[in-house]
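INTERNAL AUDIT FORM
Audit reference: QA-55
Scope: verify that the stored structure record matches its stored sequence.
Auditor: D.O.
Record contents follow.
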Amino acid sequence: MSARQHPFDPDSLVEAILSSRKYRPLGIPEETVRDLIRQAQYQSGDAKEIEKTVKQKMHNLVAPYLGDADYQAASTELDSAFASGVQSQIEAACTKIMLSHASTRERLPLLPEFYPAIFAVTGMPGTILDLACGLNPFALPWMRLPPSTRYTAYDIVQPRVDLINHFFSLMGLQPTAEKRDVLVNPPEIRADVAFFFKEAHRLEQRQKGSNRAFWQSIQARFLLVSLPTANLTGSHPKLDQHRRLVYATLEGLDWQVKEILFENEIVFVIRKPDEA
């Protein structure tokens, strides 16, 4: 049998990716890689082409170019800040963590107005889902949520989930962050509000057209989809493009949308119809 005819072995590719130096420390769910393989197989039957596509999708999904926290150092700094009992030190430690990733770094100047503007529309939520959360949970001190609010965060990077749970425990909250690929395995929790911040365009790159079914699967009264108004360098406006993505995704659905436009981010507050 020639190399060209050699059957594609998905198990070997899964093992190669997850055990690689690049991804092994991140603890990415196996289901994520298998999903990327399945999608690539729809496009090509060539083993090399599948591998190339999957590795590119993995790179885009994990997005090392957006930055990440030093998890051990961040954990130590959080311990010190909470031990001090000084709110400004706690907020400084959270700010430093959020500075390490482009998504939350861009939002930092908006924090004093960001969540008040959102919750003015949704009401103060009793249950929040933070989907593909990244480092967004470290904005909790600025959300001003009541202690009774249940906040569940989902991410595919295990050390990030561990740090978030450590932070939740220090905050006196249940450690409810989960390692989960929300596209492959959407949460079944019913919630008042679901955050899906700066991920819809990346989800579209991962699997074209996947936002619609994913949004429909989320059992939240309000789905908050945010997108950047420009590219990372600020050199190319993205507002019109991202508006088109959202409204094309919602075409034909009887869902209400209210836009909240900030300097560098737009939030689409999507109200799902109440179930009968």
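Auditor finding: record pair retrieved intact. Strands lie at 127-130, 150-155, 178-179, 191-197, 220-228, 256-261, 265-271.
Action required: none
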